[in-house]
């Protein structure tokens, strides 16, 4: 039996992961499940899967979790340290699906004990890509991408030499506002931004898809994970979300990965890798689909994408600044303190603030330094927000 843990088990990726392992319960020995505020879901899944331990990120919810687990034999724990301790419990395969920079430290800990880390938490790679990859290397651990585009690229590279890659193209659905004119975008409401045309995902990544901050994060993720230069990474708007990514080789060949927009494909690929097993995802009927469309993204309506290239050009720990400012700007948009386009303006302002701070940005990439920069960038995002809103 394979020992597995799921971080962010109560979220969209976590629930899709649980759906897959439930179909083959004898194959898995569940070590830890973690969640946040959704105690009922966390406890029910931990009991059903006979997990050793269930952990909520919030210390003030420990009593609720304990009560929900009474008599089940599943241990309860809460708080940041408990998350780290759960990640240190030996496991063969760990799903990293906490949302935000909060996923970085548990992911690092899982790598230190040599687990295969199935990485949905793209924020980890954006904030501290070099640190994460180096930790995996030093501990003989392995990171498998779960983001659909990166899983697609990974699959396109099997048996290929990375040096023969000329370019990597990741696709973007264009999100909720693909066809909206610029002057309408600042009026976009939270409800409108929270509804995705093709994918069913957590609220934060859905809004990031509408603003293209998600694609900006994924461009940086591509650069960090595959080690290709920024100039080799392209984004193509593809409204049908069926081609997830394309790898272009130096002989001119383009290898495309197609599949239904269902995260259980990428999760299942990482779960069974290096094998391929049957997965319960819809099969594409291309004759029925008939037509697939592609467009160049519009930089004026989606300024987030350009910021990603700026972050990569600056290097150092600018990715941690970018992610933290983006997370904070998103908090403010969700709380209706700013408009939709203000998110990109705030992030751009914070990047400018940090541009010249060489002692911070170019310091050694450690977990402590990343966390320090993360906090400072969140503060600067608040300053930029206050300036905008008066
Ligand atoms: P959700 O918001 O649906 O779930 C997030 C999970 O993290 C929940 O279990 C939540 O707990 C938990 N959580 C929230 N805040 C914290 C915190 N501060 N500390 C610890 N745990 C926390 O997100 P998604 O599943 O959509 O996304 C998860 C990750 O996967 C993100 O990094 C996202 O970018 C990435 N991803 C997601 C895709 C998707 O299809 N959803 C596709 C590709 C990547 P609770 O809900 O109990 O509060
Ligand atoms: Mg993606």
UniProtKB/TrEMBL annotation:
Function: Catalyzes the NADPH-dependent rearrangement and reduction of 1-deoxy-D-xylulose-5-phosphate (DXP) to 2-C-methyl-D-erythritol 4-phosphate (MEP).
Keywords: Isomerase, Isoprene biosynthesis, Magnesium, Manganese, Metal-binding, NADP, Oxidoreductase
Family as reported in the entry's similarity comment: Belongs to the DXR family.
Origin superkingdom: Bacteria
Top-level EC class: oxidoreductase
Species the sequence originates in: Parasedimentitalea marina
Residues binding Mn(2+), per UniProt: 147, 149, 218
Protein name, entry field: 1-deoxy-D-xylulose 5-phosphate reductoisomerase
Cited HAMAP family: DXP_reductoisom
